[in-house]
Amino acid sequence: MKLGAGYPMGPLELADLTGLDTKKYILEVMMNRTGNTVFRPVEVIDTLVSQGKLGRKTGEGVHYGLERRGSVMASPLPLRRFTRQVAGHGGDVAGGKYTGLLQCGDGTILKPILKESQKREVEFYERIMSSNRPDLVQLRKFIPKYYGVRKFTYNGFEQDYIMLEDLTDGMLEPCVMDLKIGRITYDPYASADKIKREESKYTRCKQQYGFCIPGYQVYRVGGARDGELVRGGKEQGKRLYGEQIVTVIRSFLNASSGSSCRALLVQLLAALWELQRVISRGGVLLRSSSLLLLYDASVLRSCCGDGGVPACRPPRLVRRRSLPGASVLSGHVTPLPSLPLRAPSSPPPVRSPWGAALARLEGSHSFDNNYQEKLSRIKMEYRARLDRIANRGGDRSPAGLLRLVDFAHGFIHEDEEIKVDENFKHGLDNLARILEALLKDTDEFVFS
């Protein structure tokens, strides 16, 4: 019903949201007033209402966004491989057992518990989600919603899975980058063999930036490759260092051939700066944890246009004679329906010492159009679009997300031993500098 008819939610999801008791009451009223037995509530509704199982209001059902999702599930949910996974364990092992992420039918991701260390990850999630400590409450904003641990059977193998929020749920063209943060990616209890293996991975990149890029996927926006899905894995990530890191991040943000989308950068940087402040308070040790950057390319396309030239920022006017009734935006002539298009007229020759100044003025002004009014309107539209895209008031905006994952080697300090994780903070600081530099490149479009 969502994809075929364009409904915001399907009938069962709506029933979960409004409550089965409400549905039962509506059906009974319609049957009594019309006398048509087609409206008589079916037996299963009567049974569920009598048992007090009403949907979201009683903490049951599969309503999307339900905080207690996973607490009560009457029937097995459909499982499939999560095709948007960009890093971490994946693929089949001997015997057909699948070690990658699974996607559940209710908007959750299932992460298999494959190692003893991942039991610590469960403890980390449990502690973070239940704590009232101010620093941990702040950190909780940057962690996917956690719905507990449950056994599932896939391909004939039953094992425990960590149930997490699907951060890409609702995105039409999800772009995801996994950044493993920190030069040191092993915990204090690692064996000598483990330390040696970790120090041999992504060495040049980790030493230079304090993070590495194990994987990413991005949908191209604009140009001949518009809509193309591009993926990079650990083999590419192992070869990245120096300016290549910046190039890959620019490519991920669809800024390879020009300036980045300012609205997207503003949202990502706002979250990153807040995360830096949280980490600077101490309280956690995050070794081998990943930072996910996510956004929806379809939202970026609506913001920046199919041509790849961001429409959400004031464009530079091209130095050319303007057509009356048309606006010149970065080389594209966009007719204005409100003004009739007529043949261009040449300005009268100017024979005065002010000729050079007038010629320069002609490059950005027209005697037939009020460019000041048009620029003012463009800036107002840009601010409105930026406020909408960077709005943090809702549950989640697909324009830009930043989340922490993978806490098998994460530790929570007690109050008496709180100290800043300088290793993790160093990686965040370097990532922020890269994004800040990209943001600075967009300033000319706003202030020129």
UniProtKB/TrEMBL annotation:
User: Which of the seven top EC classes does this enzyme belong to?
Assistant: transferase
Can you cite a GO biological process for this protein?
Answer: inositol phosphate biosynthetic process
Sorted keywords for this record are: ATP-binding, Kinase, Nucleotide-binding, Transferase
Q: Which GO terms describe its cellular component?
A: cytoplasm; nucleus
- Ranges where the 3-hydroxyacyl-CoA dehydrogenase C-terminal domain occurs: 1-62
Looking up InterPro entries in the UniProt record yields: 3HC_DH_C (IPR006108), 6-PGluconate_DH-like_C_sf (IPR008927), 6PGD_dom2 (IPR013328), IPK (IPR005522), IPK_sf (IPR038286)
The protein's matches in Gene3D superfamilies, at most eight in alphabetical order, are given as: Inositol polyphosphate kinase, N-(1-d-carboxylethyl)-l-norvaline Dehydrogenase, domain 2
Its family?
Answer: Belongs to the inositol phosphokinase (IPK) family.
What is the protein's given name? Kinase
Q: What is the lineage of its organism?
A: Eukaryota, Metazoa, Ecdysozoa, Arthropoda, Hexapoda
